Amino acid sequence: MITALSALDVGQDTEARDAALPLLAVENLTVEFTTASGTLRAVDGVSWSVRPGETLALVGESGCGKSVTALSVMRLLARPAGRVTGGRILFGGRDLLALPESEMRALRGRDIAMIFQEPMTSLNPVLTIGMQLAEPLIIHLGMSEAQARVRSVELLGMVGIPDAERRLRQYPHQFSGGMRQRVMIAIGLACDPKLIIADEPTTALDVTIQAQILELMKDLSRRLGITLVLITHNLGIVARYADQLAVMYAGRVVEEGPADRVFRAPRHPYTVRLMRSVPRLDQARGGALETIEGLPPNLMDPPSGCRFAPRCTARIPVCDSDPALRPVGDARRAACHRAEEMPGAVPLTAARPAAAAPALAAEVTPLLQVRGLSKHFAVPGRGLFGKMATVRAAEEVSFSIGRGETLGLVGESGCGKTTVGRLVLRLEEPTRGEILFDGKDIAKASAAEMRAMRTRIQVIFQDPYSSLNPRMTVGATIREPLTYRLNMATAEAHDRAASLLRQVGLPPEMAERYPHQMSGGQRQRVGIARALAMEPDFIVCDEAVSALDVSVQGQIINLLAELQAELGVAYLFIAHDLAVVRHLSQRVVVMYLGRVMEVADRDELYAAPLHPYTQALLDSAPVPDPVKERARAPRALRGELPSPLAPPSGCVFRTRCPKAIRECAEIIPPLREIRPGHLAACIRI
Amino acid sequence: MLAYAARRIALMIPTLLGVALITFFMLRVVPGDIVEVKMRSDGGYVTQELLASERARLGLDRPLVTQFGDWMQGLVTLDLGTSMWTGRPVAEEIGVRIGLTVQVALMAAVIAVLIAVPLGTISALFRDTWIDYVARIFTIAGLAVPSFWLGMLIILGLLTVFHWSPPVTYTPFFESPLKNISQLIWPALAVGYRYAAVVARMVRSSIIEVMKEDYIRTARAKGVFERMVVARHAMRNALLPAITVIGLEFAFLIGGLVVTEQVFNLNGIGRLFVEAVSRSDFILVQALVMLLAVVFVSMNLIVDMLYGVLDPRVRHG
Fold first, then answer.
1. Which of A91, A219, A555, A671 is the most exposed place for a label (fewest CB within 10 A)?
2. A146-162 residue pLDDT tens
3. CATH number of the domain enclosing B254
4. Same domain as B115, residue B41
């Protein structure tokens, strides 16, 4: 039999094998960072590979080492703090780590391109787009400036930037975030690379723009046969775009395999739990969100056994020894002693009954009533005697919130949701309209009345890093209002602060810590404790969970729901993520460019959205289910958010609306009740 | 851009008016009377009548507001008045000396930028190596050493080592460039060292900051040569804050030359200033203060305009 193999057969065999050979293989990569407090092993023996033409998704929460791995491939780690201390990175058979810097440089942007997370800062502000786009063409392909310009126009066309000739002469600040990311993609594509690494390419973008960018990347990579490594924390994106999936946790790959099969039956308890903890739009809202209790280990001093064991609910004694990443079934690997028993071995967290949404009793007076609220900002015009322009940040916004109720306020950047939150807190003076809090108009309250009211209205901010004073212990932060507003004695304030910390799930000893000694989730809990200190009736949560990782986000959402059930506090929950809003709110307001598009009870809104914008928002967010996602046609909303300085006439949404007709430009659609309790501002319904 | 410049120039007027007001009245409040100084310096007996008539001649007997009004009127018509001491027009007193001072300042600025930009850049790129340490010792020394002392060292050094002393009499540049420069290069070096040190430290910290920016990583990810990353992507961004320092330090320099001109025996604006103050020559002092104020606000304006040229965000904002 063996002798029967002809030379030809052998040749074909090798060819077939070559085709399946990975384009990029990371083998046993170890990366260390030198920090003030010691050496941190950010990546510890990581291996993954991607075959030509495939899309590999690297998934994990912040600090898991996914971006560090990608930067190691490019050899762009921040020097001298970070260095690769072991392993190989094979690209087309060559070990990139062994290449001299000059050859590595020649490879960057030519064979491997990279797209970064922050489109706002990733382009050089003082150089034209044309220059930045032509640079790799001139360096790698030896083009003349004229040739590079022709190719640049072609590239901008490919990434969907119209009017390319003119755009090439412009600077980054003249482009929107989405447009800048398109430019980054064009730069990445410039030299027809074999591989593109995209590090959270859409995390900083609005959901409708995210859909546009991802569809564009998928389309171009398929058409041009480019291999894609997509780094993301968003499982919905993975489900829609990835062929292969590698899940990272605490500097290691814990699971790897074809995306659809990993989604169907994850083999590592971390993957199992991660998938369960994502708030989902495609499933009925159950009780409390599943969460992963605890925190990822400190990589300065990782646990000796399985790194997930301290948070794992399927832990058994053998987990004290470190599990290897081993084959589990066809083409899959997992680093768990009980991989074969997964996902069944991870018990479902006893679904606590949903923090009982208080019955929407038809109250005589709601706690907060906002009527016809408008806020206009004046911005200086151009030139010596330029006319002042007006930005209508919020226009004719009305809603009401009952006691113990949550109102979700959703929309993309620039829609005015944060302005509304600030107006309700009276951090801004409204241009028009009234804000009745318990029957009293906040907008007209005197300074003394406002002081009294402020104890009843509190706020939780988005960024748990910058909203706490770094020079104060968290205990001091929480005690400050107790001492100065409630005139508590020191001992009493200490006790109260301790009980508040317990209430938000932190040990009272944490009062002695400074914010930088805590994780993001813990800081946000401190923010909540601080807000609760005054025993408010009402809390404005401005993007309170957006900066947090999925598993932590679930913990905070559950905490907010529990506190509401316990204390009867009402929330104005401002967010851009529809799935998160859905989990907490009884009623939802959707805003776009300063105007309310739709208001409805939660279940009604998600089941039967009326306004085309709400429909588009729901459509744009990918759900973590490969079967559903692959079956779904791309429905990205076209166009860019118009400038708030020159909003469209008539309906502000008409420029991007799939249903727009001529009349939409003429009438500003009033918000009208289309079904009982369900309002929408659209003349096409 | 033009409209912006026009608005900025218009805004200079209230600033200068404020400077004029404060200078004028502060000079009248501080002790010292030019008439007394002038008359009694000869040692002779001076009658009250003589003093009064001299005051009247100089216009010092009129109400302060009238004096201020006269001065303002003069300023607007570009008439700076006459020196109360020499009796010559202030414009003439300044005119014969300003060329020398401006030339020294310009030479110092050129020397400073030529030293500071490469030094700061190298220092940043080789951060925390011996190259950086040497550069930082050099710049710290520049901040610590007073320029007049450095000036004396330079003169002594030239004398003892080369047995050569710079020419004593001032030769205008267009008469004999070589002779002119061989005289003025030394004070320029003495004040330029400090200037270079300040700018170099700014360039260093600004390059270090810029090299951490995302767009530098993008440039590297494109495969741009490292020297191009620095020259094209980092430098233009890093020089923006450095330009502010270069401009403001230049304005300070005109004032800083006061002492150095004495050391090098140069008859420039600095020396004129010292003389005017010691003789309580109000008219001359206030003219000189206004001159410095104009230099300051103009440098500020030039810096801001340069920002517009170098930073498109400012240009379009």
1. A219
2. 999 999 999 998 888 88
3. 1.10.3720.10
4. no
- SS3 of A349-390: CCCCCCCCCCCCCCCCCCCEEEEEEEEEEEECCCCCCCCCEE
First to last CA, chain B: 9
Please say whether the beta carbons of A533 and A500 come within 8 A: yes
Give the integer Cα–Cα distance in Å for A104 and A124.
Answer: 22
Task: Provide the sign of the torsion angle of the four alpha carbons B274, B275, B281, B284, taken in this order.
Answer: negative
Residue of B4, B212, B215 lying closest to A124 (CB–CB): B215
Assess: ipTM above 0.85: no
User: Does residue B75 share a domain with residue B110?
Assistant: no
Class of domain A368-456+536-680: alpha beta
β-pairing, A368-379 with A252-258?
Answer: unpaired
In chain A, where the domains are located:
20-103+228-279+289-341, 368-456+536-680, 472-533
Evaluate whether residue B27 is within a structural domain.
no
- Chain B residues whose CB is inside 8 A of the A386 CB are 3
CA quadruple A473, A479, A484, A487: dihedral positive or negative? negative
CB pairs under 8 A between A and B: 83
CA pair distance B147, B186, nearest whole angstrom: 11
- Write down the pLDDT at residue A1: 38
Nearest CA in chain B to A77: B217
Tokens representing B259 are 């002492």
In a domain, B231, yes or no: yes
* B14 belongs to a structural domain: no
For B253-301, write each residue's pLDDT tens digit. Answer: 876 787 888 888 888 888 888 888 888 888 888 899 898 898 889 888 8
Band of the pLDDT at A2, cuts 50, 70, 90? very low
Q: How many domains does chain B have?
A: 2
pLDDT at A356 over 60: no
pTM above 0.80, yes or no: yes
The yes-or-no answer to whether A20-103+228-279+289-341 and A368-456+536-680 have a common fold is: yes
The whole domain housing B74 covers 35-79
Same-domain status, B132 and B269: yes
Number of Cβ within 10 Å of residue B140's Cβ equals 12
Is B19 among the domain residues? no
Give the gap in angstroms from C-alpha A290 to the nearest C-alpha of chain B.
36
CATH of domain A20-103+228-279+289-341: 3.40.50.300
Q: Are residues B70 and B104 in the same domain?
A: no
Contacts A122 to B, Cβ<8 Å: 214-215, 217-218
Place of tokens 């990347």: A217
Query: Residue A293 contacts by C-beta under 8 Å, 6 or more apart in sequence?
Result: A311, A555
Instruction: Give the 3-state secondary structure percentages of chain B, helix then strand then coil, rounded to 5.
Output: 80, 0, 20
d(C-alpha A471, C-alpha A514), whole Å: 7
How far apart, in whole angstroms, are the C-alpha atoms of residue A159 and residue A241?
Answer: 18
Q: Do B247 and B306 share a domain, yes or no? A: yes
